[in-house]
């Protein structure tokens, strides 16, 4: 029997997300992003389509690499303006019962103490449906916005992230024991002080002495997403991530990444099935192949090439405005998303040009769209699942919400007929729906920080020192 395909809607609390320029399409509603009802409507649509979740991208800072400024970014609404995605989640959760929420939060610029509280709060308010996409950032503009002269080197950011993770695990898993919350009205005891512990941490990057302010949430630790496909990123994912987001390239290339991450996870004492891989996908479909092709050509007329270059310049750390169309691009000094540069080099060769890049951005991004009838789309998704080993897909929006409505109405029934997509939600919290358990397993790195695990860093609460 084929594995069950998982689906997330890949979105962002902004106008122009991945497919640059499509916000100008007359049927696109992304300019409603400041309207809470827009997000609630989307949540209901996705839950009706039995989507596992909505995966929110986010970015701190502005895309100011292209041309050395933000003019092209502002004209094309290239993830600017952009609002905080975490603030729309409670409303979306209130409109649904099962839909999960993966939210991107940059750990580099936020103290672990306050961040741990926000995630626990969201997990409580959603009834255990929150996930965290762990990112370390890639924009110098974000570093400057938070008082730094520039961002850390790529691999150094992951070293910082490893320490950060140990701290939030201490808050989520170790500060409050199971059974600490008594809610005993008669005895006038809400929480048992002997089962609440201070987190004491003296590390290279962080010094902390604090209780976690939240009682244990349904999942304790949110479902952990991570999107790094570089060598260092894969090591981090194999240690921490439950769900890994990869961008599609060749099927063999994706399979190599998937196999490598799972092999590393096993090396680190985890089970291969403890890691689910979601591949980014852009789908344009219609009732027939001809209808899908017609829609695709319609969408292409709204692509903004300059906006796409502004986005690519920031994500690759390369100012493409400095290059002629056929001038070889220098790629050896990027501190942005290294895996994006590596992927472009794999697809276009060691010496590539701005023209080659533009040729790949057929819908305003480098993500090659799947275009076809529902059956043809289902064939492709199943092939990726079976041959590359991916567990599911982050479906990038094109013209919204039309793209999700088309997929739900046309493709989902075909996937269900072929036995690779659920016909009803399973019970339980987000992690339970994905993995069959509410809490992280004992083989995960976070388990070492649970009360009684013997790892230094958590001391009894109250006034005891």
Structure characterization notes:
- With 465 residues, the chain is of the alpha/beta class.
- It has a single domain, classed as Alpha-Beta Barrel (TIM Barrel), CATH 3.20.20.30.
- The chain contains 15 helices and 15 strands.
- The chain has helices spanning 36-48, 71-76, 89-94, 112-125, 140-145, 154-174, 231-240, 251-267, 289-300, 305-316, 338-348, 354-360, 374-388, 402-417, 430-435; strands spanning 6-12, 53-57, 100-106, 130-135, 181-184, 189-191, 197-202, 207-211, 223-226, 243-247, 276-281, 283-285, 370-372, 392-396, 458-460.
- It has an 8-stranded parallel β-barrel, surrounded by 4 helices. Strands 8-7-15 form a 3-stranded antiparallel sheet, covered by helices on one side. A two-stranded antiparallel sheet has the order 5-6.
- Strand 5 and strand 6 form a beta hairpin.
- Helix 4 crosses helix 6 and helix 7 (231-240) packs across helix 8 (251-267).
- The longest helix has 21 residues, at 154-174.
- It is globular.
Low-confidence stretches: 461-465
> Can you tell me the CATH topology?
TIM Barrel
Largest sheet: 8 strands, parallel, barrel
What share of the residues does DSSP label as strand, in percent? Answer: 15-25%
CATH class: Alpha Beta
Spatial strand order of the main sheet: 1-2-3-4-9-10-11-14
Helix/strand-derived category reads: alpha/beta
SSE map:
Layout lengths: L5 E7 L23 H13 L4 E5 L13 H6 L12 H6 L5 E7 L5 H14 L4 E6 L4 H6 L8 H21 L6 E4 L4 E3 L5 E6 L4 E5 L11 E4 L4 H10 L2 E5 L3 H17 L8 E6 L1 E3 L3 H12 L4 H12 L21 H11 L5 H7 L9 E3 L1 H15 L3 E5 L5 H16 L12 H6 L22 E3 L5
Parallel strand pairs: 1-2, 1-14, 2-3, 3-4, 4-9, 9-10, 10-11, 11-14, 12-13
Antiparallel strand pairs: 5-6, 7-8, 7-15
């Amino acid at each position: 029997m084929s594995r069950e395909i998982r689906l997330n809607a890949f979105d962002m609390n902004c106008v122009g997300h991945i497919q640059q320029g499509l916000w100008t399409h007359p049927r696109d509603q992304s300019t409603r992003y400041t309207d809470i009802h827009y997000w609630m409507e989307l949540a209901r649509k996705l839950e009706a389509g039995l989507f596992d979740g909505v995966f929110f991208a986010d970015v701190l800072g502005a895309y100011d690499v292209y041309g050395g400024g933000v003019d092209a970014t502002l004209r094309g609404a290239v993830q600017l303006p952009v609002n905080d995605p975490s603030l729309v989640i409670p409303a979306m959760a209130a409109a649904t019962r099962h839909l999960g929420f993966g939210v991107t939060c940059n750990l580099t610029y936020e103290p672990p103490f306050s961040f741990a509280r926000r995630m626990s709060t969201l997990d409580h308010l959603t009834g255990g449906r929150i996930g965290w996409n762990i990112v370390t950032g890639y924009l110098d503009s974000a570093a400057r916005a938070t008082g730094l002269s520039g961002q850390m080197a790529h691999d150094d950011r992951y070293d910082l992230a490893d320490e950060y993770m140990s701290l939030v695990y201490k808050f989520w898993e170790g500060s409050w024991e199971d059974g600490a919350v008594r809610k005993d009205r008669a005895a006038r005891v809400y929480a048992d002080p002997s089962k609440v512990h201070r987190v004491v941490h003296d590390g290279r990057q962080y010094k902390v002495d604090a209780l976690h302010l939240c009682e244990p949430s349904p999942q304790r630790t949110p479902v952990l997403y991570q999107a790094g496909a570089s060598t260092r990123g894969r090591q981090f994912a194999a240690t921490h991530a439950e769900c890994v987001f990869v961008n599609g390239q060749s099927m063999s290339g994706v399979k190599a990444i998937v196999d490598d991450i799972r092999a590393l996870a096993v090396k680190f004492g985890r089970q291969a099935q403890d890691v689910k891989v979601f591949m980014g996908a852009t789908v344009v479909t219609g009732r027939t192949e001809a209808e899908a092709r017609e829609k695709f050509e319609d969408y292409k007329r709204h692509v903004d090439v300059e906006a796409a270059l502004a986005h690519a310049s920031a994500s690759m750390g390369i100012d493409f405005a400095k290059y002629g169309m056929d001038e070889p691009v220098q790629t050896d000094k990027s501190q942005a998303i290294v895996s994006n540069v590596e992927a472009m080099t794999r697809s276009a060769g060691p010496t590539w040009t701005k023209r080659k890049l533009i040729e790949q951005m057929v819908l305003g991004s480098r993500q090659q769209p799947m275009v076809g009838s529902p059956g043809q789309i289902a064939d492709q998704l199943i092939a990726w699942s079976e041959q590359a080993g991916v567990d599911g897909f982050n479906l990038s929006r094109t013209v919204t919400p039309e793209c999700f409505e088309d997929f739900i109405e046309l493709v989902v029934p075909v996937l269900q007929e072929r036995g690779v997509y659920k016909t009803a939600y399973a019970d339980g919290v987000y992690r339970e729906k994905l993995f069959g358990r509410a809490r992280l397993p004992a083989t995960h790195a976070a388990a070492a920080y649970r009360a009684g695990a013997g790892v230094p860093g958590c001391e009894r609460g109250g006034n005891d020192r």
